[in-house]
Design brief:
By secondary structure, this protein is α/β, with parallel strands linked by helices.
Length: 87
């Protein structure tokens, strides 16, 4: 939620938020209104990139997107933070 509010408050960059928890699916992020859907919905759009915010789930998410549609590239956002961190 915080990432979406900081990066895309106007819903111009992030198409949707994916969560495997069925209790969150079909709802929207407060503040920005990004739709929360299940991973199966990724096949319905022209999604090319999946930003993974929790590195603990990167392997699982990578396997899921490959199984659903191999054209989606998962990116471990936390792994790239060090490249842009200020000292």
């Amino acid at each position: 939620m915080t990432f979406a509010q900081l990066i895309d408050p106007g819903r111009e960059l992030i198409a949707r938020v994916v969560d495997v928890n069925p209790m969150k699916q079909g709802r929207y992020l407060p503040g920005t209104g990004h739709e929360i859907c299940g991973p199966e919905r990724l096949t319905e759009s022209e999604t090319h990139t999946a930003l993974v915010l929790n590195p603990n789930y990167f392997s699982e998410i990578s396997a899921t997107v490959k199984e659903l549609r191999g054209a989606i590239t998962p990116i471990d956002v936390m792994a790239h933070l060090g490249e842009y961190a200020c000292n």
